[in-house]
Amino acid sequence: MTAAPPLRTAARTADAAPAPYRLHAIARIRAEAADGVTDLPLLHGDGPFALRRLRPRGAQARVCTLNTMSAPHNGDRLRIEVAVGPDADLHVITAAATVALPGRTPDHSVLDAALRVDDSARLHWLPEPVISAAGSDLRQHTLIDLAGTARLVLSEQLILGRAHEPPGRLASRITVRRDGRTLLDQHNAYGPGAPGWDGPAVLAGNRAVGQLLVIDPAYQDRPPGTHILDGVPARAHGVITPLAGPGVLLTAVAPDAGDLRRCLDAALHHLDLRT
User: Fold this and answer.
1) Fewer CB within a 10 Å sphere, N or C end of the chain?
2) 2 falls within a domain
3) Which domain holds residue 184?
Protein backbone atom coordinates (compact mmCIF):
# COMPACT_ATOMS: atom_id res chain seq x y z
CA MET A 1 0.00 0.00 0.00
CA THR A 2 1.33 3.43 -0.94
CA ALA A 3 1.43 5.93 1.87
CA ALA A 4 -0.57 9.15 1.41
CA PRO A 5 1.55 12.28 1.02
CA PRO A 6 1.90 14.44 4.10
CA LEU A 7 -0.90 16.97 4.53
CA ARG A 8 1.67 19.73 5.13
CA THR A 9 2.95 19.63 1.51
CA ALA A 10 0.36 22.12 0.24
CA ALA A 11 1.10 24.47 3.11
CA ARG A 12 4.80 24.36 2.32
CA THR A 13 4.10 25.20 -1.33
CA ALA A 14 1.94 28.17 -0.37
CA ASP A 15 4.56 29.46 2.05
CA ALA A 16 7.27 29.22 -0.60
CA ALA A 17 5.40 31.56 -2.96
CA PRO A 18 3.52 34.15 -0.90
CA ALA A 19 1.16 36.45 -2.73
CA PRO A 20 2.67 39.91 -3.22
CA TYR A 21 1.33 42.59 -0.91
CA ARG A 22 0.16 45.80 -2.53
CA LEU A 23 -1.54 48.77 -0.92
CA HIS A 24 -3.75 51.11 -2.94
CA ALA A 25 -4.86 54.28 -1.16
CA ILE A 26 -6.07 57.77 -2.03
CA ALA A 27 -6.58 60.99 -0.07
CA ARG A 28 -8.69 63.94 -1.18
CA ILE A 29 -8.75 67.54 0.04
CA ARG A 30 -11.04 70.29 -1.25
CA ALA A 31 -10.82 73.88 -0.06
CA GLU A 32 -13.41 76.56 -0.82
CA ALA A 33 -13.66 80.23 0.06
CA ALA A 34 -16.72 81.22 2.11
CA ASP A 35 -17.44 84.52 3.90
CA GLY A 36 -13.82 85.63 3.84
CA VAL A 37 -12.33 82.37 5.16
CA THR A 38 -11.44 79.01 3.66
CA ASP A 39 -13.59 75.97 4.43
CA LEU A 40 -12.70 72.31 3.93
CA PRO A 41 -15.85 70.57 2.65
CA LEU A 42 -13.88 67.45 1.70
CA LEU A 43 -11.18 65.88 3.84
CA HIS A 44 -10.93 62.14 3.28
CA GLY A 45 -8.09 59.64 3.35
CA ASP A 46 -7.79 55.88 2.98
CA GLY A 47 -5.18 54.11 5.09
CA PRO A 48 -2.35 55.05 5.45
CA PHE A 49 -3.52 58.66 5.01
CA ALA A 50 -5.03 60.42 8.00
CA LEU A 51 -5.94 64.07 7.42
CA ARG A 52 -6.16 66.51 10.32
CA ARG A 53 -7.45 70.08 10.40
CA LEU A 54 -5.05 72.51 12.04
CA ARG A 55 -5.88 75.85 13.59
CA PRO A 56 -6.51 78.31 10.73
CA ARG A 57 -4.19 81.23 10.19
CA GLY A 58 -6.41 84.19 9.38
CA ALA A 59 -8.38 83.28 6.24
CA GLN A 60 -6.04 80.38 5.48
CA ALA A 61 -7.09 76.78 6.14
CA ARG A 62 -4.36 74.41 7.26
CA VAL A 63 -4.18 70.61 6.97
CA CYS A 64 -1.67 68.07 8.27
CA THR A 65 -1.31 64.65 6.62
CA LEU A 66 -0.30 61.78 8.91
CA ASN A 67 1.04 58.44 7.75
CA THR A 68 -0.63 55.90 10.05
CA MET A 69 1.30 52.88 8.77
CA SER A 70 4.64 52.16 7.11
CA ALA A 71 4.19 53.03 3.44
CA PRO A 72 4.99 53.04 0.64
CA HIS A 73 6.59 49.63 0.23
CA ASN A 74 7.57 48.39 -3.20
CA GLY A 75 4.37 47.69 -5.12
CA ASP A 76 2.20 50.19 -3.24
CA ARG A 77 0.18 52.85 -5.08
CA LEU A 78 -0.55 56.04 -3.12
CA ARG A 79 -2.21 59.21 -4.42
CA ILE A 80 -3.24 62.58 -2.99
CA GLU A 81 -5.70 64.88 -4.80
CA VAL A 82 -6.08 68.52 -3.75
CA ALA A 83 -8.50 71.07 -5.21
CA VAL A 84 -8.32 74.72 -4.09
CA GLY A 85 -11.37 76.65 -5.24
CA PRO A 86 -11.48 80.30 -6.38
CA ASP A 87 -10.17 82.76 -3.75
CA ALA A 88 -9.40 79.96 -1.28
CA ASP A 89 -6.13 79.76 0.66
CA LEU A 90 -4.78 76.35 1.74
CA HIS A 91 -1.61 75.29 3.56
CA VAL A 92 -0.73 71.56 3.64
CA ILE A 93 2.07 69.91 5.62
CA THR A 94 2.93 66.38 6.71
CA ALA A 95 3.54 65.28 10.28
CA ALA A 96 6.76 63.39 9.53
CA ALA A 97 9.00 62.22 6.73
CA THR A 98 7.74 59.63 4.25
CA VAL A 99 10.04 56.59 4.11
CA ALA A 100 10.06 54.53 0.91
CA LEU A 101 10.72 50.90 1.91
CA PRO A 102 11.47 47.60 0.15
CA GLY A 103 8.60 45.15 -0.15
CA ARG A 104 7.61 41.58 -1.01
CA THR A 105 7.09 42.42 -4.67
CA PRO A 106 9.75 43.57 -7.16
CA ASP A 107 7.42 46.24 -8.54
CA HIS A 108 8.20 49.87 -7.85
CA SER A 109 5.97 51.95 -5.59
CA VAL A 110 4.11 55.08 -6.69
CA LEU A 111 3.43 58.28 -4.76
CA ASP A 112 1.40 60.77 -6.84
CA ALA A 113 0.03 64.19 -5.98
CA ALA A 114 -2.49 65.97 -8.23
CA LEU A 115 -2.90 69.61 -7.19
CA ARG A 116 -5.39 72.05 -8.74
CA VAL A 117 -5.46 75.74 -7.81
CA ASP A 118 -8.22 77.93 -9.25
CA ASP A 119 -8.42 81.67 -9.93
CA SER A 120 -7.12 83.99 -7.19
CA ALA A 121 -6.47 80.97 -4.95
CA ARG A 122 -3.26 80.07 -3.13
CA LEU A 123 -1.71 76.75 -2.13
CA HIS A 124 1.28 76.16 0.13
CA TRP A 125 2.37 72.52 -0.36
CA LEU A 126 5.18 71.93 2.14
CA PRO A 127 5.58 68.23 3.02
CA GLU A 128 8.39 66.79 5.09
CA PRO A 129 11.18 64.92 3.24
CA VAL A 130 10.84 61.67 1.31
CA ILE A 131 13.54 59.21 2.45
CA SER A 132 14.70 56.50 0.04
CA ALA A 133 15.66 53.44 2.13
CA ALA A 134 18.00 50.75 0.78
CA GLY A 135 16.19 48.28 -1.48
CA SER A 136 13.23 50.57 -2.17
CA ASP A 137 12.11 51.74 -5.61
CA LEU A 138 9.82 54.78 -5.55
CA ARG A 139 8.48 56.84 -8.42
CA GLN A 140 6.68 60.01 -7.46
CA HIS A 141 4.96 62.55 -9.67
CA THR A 142 3.57 65.91 -8.58
CA LEU A 143 1.18 67.32 -11.19
CA ILE A 144 0.00 70.90 -10.66
CA ASP A 145 -2.73 72.67 -12.64
CA LEU A 146 -2.87 76.41 -12.00
CA ALA A 147 -5.30 79.07 -13.13
CA GLY A 148 -3.76 82.26 -14.50
CA THR A 149 -4.18 84.18 -11.22
CA ALA A 150 -3.35 81.29 -8.87
CA ARG A 151 -0.35 81.29 -6.54
CA LEU A 152 1.75 78.35 -5.41
CA VAL A 153 4.57 77.66 -2.96
CA LEU A 154 5.80 74.06 -3.23
CA SER A 155 8.68 72.32 -1.49
CA GLU A 156 10.24 68.96 -2.31
CA GLN A 157 12.97 67.35 -0.18
CA LEU A 158 14.55 64.01 -1.10
CA ILE A 159 16.91 62.16 1.26
CA LEU A 160 18.89 59.35 -0.33
CA GLY A 161 19.35 56.60 2.23
CA ARG A 162 18.95 56.41 5.98
CA ALA A 163 21.96 56.74 8.27
CA HIS A 164 24.85 54.42 7.32
CA GLU A 165 23.00 52.75 4.42
CA PRO A 166 22.97 53.17 0.63
CA PRO A 167 19.90 54.71 -1.03
CA GLY A 168 17.20 52.90 -2.91
CA ARG A 169 16.10 54.03 -6.35
CA LEU A 170 14.06 57.23 -6.41
CA ALA A 171 12.60 58.99 -9.44
CA SER A 172 10.77 62.28 -9.05
CA ARG A 173 8.87 64.37 -11.57
CA ILE A 174 7.25 67.79 -11.14
CA THR A 175 4.90 69.02 -13.86
CA VAL A 176 3.29 72.47 -13.69
CA ARG A 177 0.62 73.63 -16.11
CA ARG A 178 -0.63 77.22 -15.99
CA ASP A 179 -3.72 78.15 -17.96
CA GLY A 180 -3.38 74.82 -19.75
CA ARG A 181 0.20 75.47 -20.89
CA THR A 182 3.24 73.68 -19.49
CA LEU A 183 5.35 75.97 -17.31
CA LEU A 184 7.70 73.33 -15.86
CA ASP A 185 8.27 69.63 -16.46
CA GLN A 186 11.28 68.32 -14.59
CA HIS A 187 12.36 64.73 -13.99
CA ASN A 188 15.21 63.47 -11.79
CA ALA A 189 16.35 59.95 -10.89
CA TYR A 190 18.76 58.83 -8.17
CA GLY A 191 20.16 55.59 -6.80
CA PRO A 192 20.95 52.20 -8.35
CA GLY A 193 20.44 52.11 -12.10
CA ALA A 194 20.22 55.90 -12.54
CA PRO A 195 23.20 56.96 -14.71
CA GLY A 196 25.54 59.59 -13.29
CA TRP A 197 23.36 60.50 -10.32
CA ASP A 198 26.28 60.63 -7.87
CA GLY A 199 28.82 62.19 -10.23
CA PRO A 200 30.30 65.67 -9.98
CA ALA A 201 27.73 67.10 -12.40
CA VAL A 202 24.74 65.97 -10.31
CA LEU A 203 25.04 65.36 -6.54
CA ALA A 204 28.83 65.07 -6.13
CA GLY A 205 28.50 62.90 -3.05
CA ASN A 206 25.63 64.80 -1.44
CA ARG A 207 22.70 62.77 -0.13
CA ALA A 208 19.98 65.44 0.15
CA VAL A 209 18.43 67.32 -2.75
CA GLY A 210 15.54 69.75 -2.68
CA GLN A 211 13.48 72.17 -4.69
CA LEU A 212 11.38 75.19 -3.82
CA LEU A 213 8.94 76.30 -6.49
CA VAL A 214 7.11 79.64 -6.28
CA ILE A 215 4.51 80.68 -8.86
CA ASP A 216 2.99 84.15 -8.48
CA PRO A 217 1.37 86.44 -11.07
CA ALA A 218 3.31 89.31 -9.46
CA TYR A 219 6.45 87.81 -11.04
CA GLN A 220 5.04 88.21 -14.55
CA ASP A 221 6.61 91.61 -15.14
CA ARG A 222 9.32 91.72 -12.47
CA PRO A 223 10.61 88.21 -11.64
CA PRO A 224 13.38 87.82 -9.04
CA GLY A 225 16.81 87.56 -10.61
CA THR A 226 19.17 84.61 -10.40
CA HIS A 227 20.63 84.30 -6.91
CA ILE A 228 23.22 81.82 -5.62
CA LEU A 229 22.69 80.58 -2.07
CA ASP A 230 26.19 79.42 -1.17
CA GLY A 231 27.36 78.81 2.37
CA VAL A 232 23.88 78.99 3.92
CA PRO A 233 24.64 76.69 5.70
CA ALA A 234 28.29 76.15 4.84
CA ARG A 235 27.86 72.65 3.38
CA ALA A 236 24.73 73.31 1.30
CA HIS A 237 24.52 74.88 -2.14
CA GLY A 238 21.51 76.28 -3.93
CA VAL A 239 20.53 78.57 -6.77
CA ILE A 240 17.32 80.51 -7.38
CA THR A 241 16.50 80.91 -11.06
CA PRO A 242 13.51 82.55 -12.80
CA LEU A 243 11.25 80.39 -14.94
CA ALA A 244 9.95 81.24 -18.39
CA GLY A 245 6.78 82.48 -16.78
CA PRO A 246 5.68 84.05 -13.47
CA GLY A 247 7.75 81.85 -11.18
CA VAL A 248 11.11 80.97 -9.69
CA LEU A 249 12.75 77.66 -8.82
CA LEU A 250 15.31 76.96 -6.12
CA THR A 251 17.42 73.84 -6.58
CA ALA A 252 19.60 72.83 -3.62
CA VAL A 253 21.93 70.01 -2.60
CA ALA A 254 23.34 69.23 0.83
CA PRO A 255 25.03 66.36 2.67
CA ASP A 256 22.04 65.79 4.99
CA ALA A 257 18.45 66.73 5.70
CA GLY A 258 19.26 69.39 8.30
CA ASP A 259 21.49 71.41 5.99
CA LEU A 260 18.98 71.06 3.16
CA ARG A 261 16.16 72.40 5.33
CA ARG A 262 18.25 75.39 6.38
CA CYS A 263 19.03 76.14 2.73
CA LEU A 264 15.32 76.05 1.83
CA ASP A 265 14.54 78.34 4.76
CA ALA A 266 17.21 80.77 3.51
CA ALA A 267 15.53 80.77 0.09
CA LEU A 268 12.12 81.53 1.64
CA HIS A 269 13.71 84.40 3.54
CA HIS A 270 15.41 85.73 0.40
CA LEU A 271 12.10 85.63 -1.50
CA ASP A 272 10.35 87.26 1.49
CA LEU A 273 7.79 84.48 1.78
CA ARG A 274 5.91 83.67 4.95
CA THR A 275 4.56 80.13 5.08
Assistant:
1) N
2) no
3) 24-270
